[in-house]
């Protein structure tokens, strides 16, 4: 069937929408792909829906190819399963909660680990049934704090979520790798440029979790990569290489100095350069930060963190390190309640002497010597040696990672880049199957607890990501695999012969199995060309003045090249261009 622009439910806009900041958002709105209904809530118009369906098709084909089976769960879910896993509360403000007419609590599903675990428990009871991989392509709801960039970060969005259930670790490993490879195929087919980054430091063993990040300057995720080795990791997952310990023998004793009015690193460094007769930099100082941890059971703990004075605390890294606890900065009340804490002059000693857990940056190894707080107002200690004068309770990854820091694999320096998360694969383990006792009868007659994996792809987000990576100043530029149409035929001349010629070319292209949009509107060629560039179908066939000599023009939206060909060769040339 040929789609006629004269009839298509489409109005392109000349101006960028006022609320749009990133190119994909501007273009998808201007080209009539999506329309905003509320913050983070969008409607899909015909062109947008076609692209969304194409992305879904690719995802579905690759999921089916690894043997995953498609099911569909509701978005409207009862509270109980999420209560059992505590996510009803732990999900916080991002969860859409609602009540039915009887007052029962419901939610709109943000992700479905609970339901899939329960589903498998309900249907399967023997080891012979395993392994199994199930997926759905479904609408998710998250009341995001900052919905952004149109469909890039929505409050309603389409996700492909899949879940694997296996009898043992080896099985989970296989399911995980099947997903990893399926994702690589999906993103290659969608022509997305991406990196795979370690999402966690692997403290829980192996590569328990990886994220697929589309490379993009408008991305909200910062990751680092090592050009030499290809190492890439989320900033949260970077493990600081610890230098080798140094001998402590012969190091000068620690000396306490009067350092009035030096509550900051800058003032301390200035003092030290004047007073110590040697060059001192911020990295020679040890900055001690106090946070209050709040554990899921409500308990709190004060934690001291020591980092080299030239580094800030990275809140995301600190947050990841203290999970599942959450941290907050300590308040005046906390200082008042703990008089041994000298604000601005806190040192390791008072913390350790008073039973406050003290964790240090991995660079603070035995034998390193520091200028740090001496636990009294206006006093610092110089030459305090780790492993001699204080022994921390352990290390913590909380300091910022910077361009030029050494890669954990030793291959070279790290550089920072930005990306958009398009997929996430996660060896979940027993978290949900333990909660719901998801067991089957094992080969030996004893129950076996299933181990679960969880894997997501941002299907609607990918529409924006592709637009973000592929557009140019004129408009969208879809890869053939997801384009709303294969060919866009433009009638660019008023005379009846050109119109009839375009109609018959469109019919031929359609008969050859291509999806065709025909611009048969009564508009000027200039308007039509602009719209064709904005809409971004990969190949545009122009039937204009040249038709008098029997020629049409084929324009390649991607390369910008165009060729004049006889009308009789259009179909063959279009097919050849598509294959190239
Ligand atoms: P993000 O860090 O971007 O919020 P997430 O870690 O919350 O993502 P997951 O819970 O792993 O994401 O969800 C799986 C996939 O769903 C993500 O990789 C992403 O592509 C997509 N996704 C998540 N949140 C949104 C959203 N608000 N809008 C569109 N897509 C989303
Ligand atoms: Mg999120």
UniProtKB/TrEMBL annotation:
CDD domains: ProRS_anticodon_short. SUPFAM superfamilies: Class II aaRS ABD-related, Class II aaRS and biotin synthetases, YbaK/ProRS associated domain. It catalyses: tRNA(Pro) + L-proline + ATP = L-prolyl-tRNA(Pro) + AMP + diphosphate. One of its GO terms (molecular function) is ATP binding. It holds the Pfam family HGTP_anticodon. It is an enzyme of class 6 (ligase). Coiled coil: none annotated. Residues 35-479 form the Aminoacyl-transfer RNA synthetases class-II family profile domain. Keywords: Aminoacyl-tRNA synthetase, ATP-binding, Cytoplasm, Ligase, Nucleotide-binding, Protein biosynthesis. One of its GO terms (biological process) is prolyl-tRNA aminoacylation. Its main location: cytoplasm. One of its GO terms (cellular component) is cytosol. It is found in: Cytoplasm. Its EC number is 6.1.1.15. Belongs to the class-II aminoacyl-tRNA synthetase family. ProS type 1 subfamily. Catalyzes the attachment of proline to tRNA(Pro) in a two-step reaction: proline is first activated by ATP to form Pro-AMP and then transferred to the acceptor end of tRNA(Pro). As ProRS can inadvertently accommodate and process non-cognate amino acids such as alanine and cysteine, to avoid such errors it has two additional distinct editing activities against alanine. One activity is designated as 'pretransfer' editing and involves the tRNA(Pro)-independent hydrolysis of activated Ala-AMP. Homodimer. HAMAP family: Pro_tRNA_synth_type1. Consists of three domains: the N-terminal catalytic domain, the editing domain and the C-terminal anticodon-binding domain. NCBIfam families: PRK09194.1 (NF006625), proS_fam_II (TIGR00409). This is Proline--tRNA ligase. The gene is proS.
